[in-house]
Q: What sequence folds into this?
């Protein structure tokens, strides 16, 4: 039997409309909820975490409080997809799958490229591919513009602090390490396998810049603590800066480039 | 007291002083940057402005001060509590103090108060949590104006359980970042850049040692039991109350400065009892010195064994302290001593 073009068109339209109108998504991670908002796919979101401030304002149901997942609630929301990260307990994911839900686990992104891939993946689930492409293209253009500001001859040593007690820094193979490499810096912890670092190691590796990722007054206190170590080049030249953790810890392309922009503009004024 | 006893105790004190000096020198010398022992005086007195000076003066010395004072204070608090309760398993942290302190700190972290008001809230919360717990334990153990010491231990253990349930409740309602902060805080660390907190720790531990020596007679008398101590003319109720407050203040200070560091308060006084005997005149000072040098040694291991990464000090105190204690216990002579 030969298929008529009319039939084909009908099937394509039917599949497309199913995709567009029927998707109901439950997000178990604030970062993924944020990505859905960036993709302007928030109308598909039916459940979120108690930390998804924007979604809660939009009266989305809270299905996870802290680390505790309300499986029953998720089930009653009848989602087409439950999206989450690898921070969710495997037993919780298994429980959701067991009751017949489709769960998409997005691993914590290890690079800017992976952040973009995850945005594309979410866009595919929510049928927002063109939006994702335009976001990624725009951010790439921003990155290219910013890259041109980096002097070729400089490669400053950067200490990027993400925790004070114990002292914690970013290590290679994380998207936060990309903040440093994308801004032309050199991570002083590039040889480390895990993030805890002694203060002594930081002093001896003598960073040219110290970036402290934190919110509130803790950042200022940490900054004051570093000022005591007058041998560090960053201390001598007053190159200690605070980075807003809301942006720095949020793995989405826009926040990522915002942080790279802050770093580049601070490092090469 | 016989002269030979005097000499024996003098030798013990000398030995522990040497041990303390040794642990300090090792800690000053070893690290990411190796500094030879002979260079240390030159760097400290004439090397201002150099990298070595910064490392010694601003990083290693503060940790040593904290190690000596926290290790010392925890050990005398443990010795006092074990003496008062005549129970070898009692230590500052089995009395529910660590649980209370950790719960209080976890509350501050989870509510985000430390981010809004200041990081000083964490040590303050630890201190208040430790004191609140110990006073709660105390008041729950008073019957008709009399403190039932054996009840206190039970109440302390129960409060530990309640506090750990409270922690689980808080942790299940918060973000993974906060959970990480809480867990690391519980594991303890000697990395404290705040010099006033360090000064407070040193002052309080030395003062605590001095005050504890004012209660040498009640402490020694209490070894015979409360009734016998009372017959010896000791006002046991007052003595127990003051010693209890002293141990609580010292523990609260340790929690505030270094987080929860377990095992030191339990193992060091026990070990000292095996080595030097149970007389508090020698037990307190030897526990103070040995506890301090033990913690300084553990910190040196914690910050060098996987350098430039750092291990939580609680891991080291637990492993080293526990192993040493098991070896000591398994020796037949010590078994006889304890029985």
A:
């Amino acid at each position: 039997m030969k298929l008529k073009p009319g039939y084909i068109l009908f099937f394509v339209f039917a599949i497309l409309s199913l995709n567009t109108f029927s998707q109901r998504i439950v997000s178990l991670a604030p970062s993924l909820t944020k990505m859905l908002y960036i993709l302007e796919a928030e109308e598909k979101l039916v459940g979120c975490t108690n930390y998804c401030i924007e979604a809660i304002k939009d009266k989305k149901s809270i299905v996870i409080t802290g680390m505790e997942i309300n499986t029953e609630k998720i089930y009653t929301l009848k989602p087409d997809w439950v999206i989450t990260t690898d921070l969710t307990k495997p037993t919780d994911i298994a429980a959701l799958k067991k009751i017949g839900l489709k769960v998409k686990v997005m691993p914590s992104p290890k690079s800017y490229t992976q952040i973009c891939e995850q945005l594309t993946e979410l866009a595919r689930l929510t049928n927002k591919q063109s939006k994702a492409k335009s976001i990624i293209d725009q951010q790439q253009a921003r990155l290219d513009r910013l890259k041109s500001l980096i002097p070729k001859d400089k490669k400053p040593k950067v200490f990027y602090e993400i925790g004070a007690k114990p002292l914690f820094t970013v290590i290679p193979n994380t998207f936060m390490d990309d903040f440093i490499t994308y801004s032309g810096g050199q991570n002083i912890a590039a040889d480390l396998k895990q993030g805890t670092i002694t203060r002594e190691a930081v002093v001896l590796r003598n960073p040219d810049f110290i970036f402290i990722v934190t919110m509130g007054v803790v950042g200022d206190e940490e900054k004051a603590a570093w000022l005591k170590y007058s041998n560090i080049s960053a201390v001598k030249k007053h190159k200690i800066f605070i980075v807003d953790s809301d942006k720095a810890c949020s793995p989405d392309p826009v926040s990522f480039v915002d942080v790279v922009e802050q770093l580049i503009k601070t490092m090469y004024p | 007291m016989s002269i030979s006893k005097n000499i024996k105790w003098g030798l013990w004190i000398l030995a522990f002083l040497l041990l303390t000096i040794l642990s300090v020198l090792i800690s000053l010398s070893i690290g990411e940057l190796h500094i030879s022992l002979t260079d240390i005086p030159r760097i400290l007195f004439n090397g201002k402005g150099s990298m070595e000076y910064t490392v010694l003066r601003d990083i290693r010395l503060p940790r040593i001060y904290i190690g000596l004072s926290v290790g010392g204070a925890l050990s005398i608090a443990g010795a006092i509590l074990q003496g008062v309760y005549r129970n070898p398993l009692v230590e500052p942290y089995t009395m529910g103090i660590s649980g209370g302190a950790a719960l209080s700190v976890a509350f501050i972290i989870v509510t985000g108060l430390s981010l809004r008001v200041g990081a000083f809230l964490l040590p303050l919360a630890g201190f208040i949590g430790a004191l609140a717990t110990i006073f709660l334990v105390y008041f729950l153990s008073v019957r008709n104006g009399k403190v039932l010491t054996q009840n206190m231990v039970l109440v302390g253990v129960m409060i530990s359980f309640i506090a750990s349930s409270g922690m689980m409740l808080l942790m299940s309602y918060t973000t993974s970042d906060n959970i990480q902060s809480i867990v690391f805080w519980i594991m303890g660390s000697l990395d404290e850049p705040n010099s006033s907190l360090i000064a407070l720790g040193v002052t309080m531990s030395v003062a605590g040692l001095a005050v504890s020596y004012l209660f040498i007679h009640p402490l020694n008398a209490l070894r015979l039991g409360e009734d016998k101590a009372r017959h010896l003319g000791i006002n046991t109720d007052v003595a127990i109350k003051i010693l209890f407050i002293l141990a609580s203040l010292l523990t609260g200070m340790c929690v505030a400065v270094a987080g929860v560091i377990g095992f030191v308060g339990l193992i060091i006084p026990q070990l000292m009892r095996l080595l030097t005997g149970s007389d508090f005149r020698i037990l307190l000072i030897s526990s103070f010195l040995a506890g301090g040098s033990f913690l300084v040694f553990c910190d040196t291991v914690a910050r060098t064994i996987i350098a430039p990464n750092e291990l939580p000090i609680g891991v080291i105190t637990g492993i080293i302290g526990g192993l040493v204690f098991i070896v000591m216990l398994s020796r037949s002579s010590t078994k006889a001593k304890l029985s």
User: Anything to note?
Assistant: Chain A touches chain B through 38 residues (CB under 8 Å).
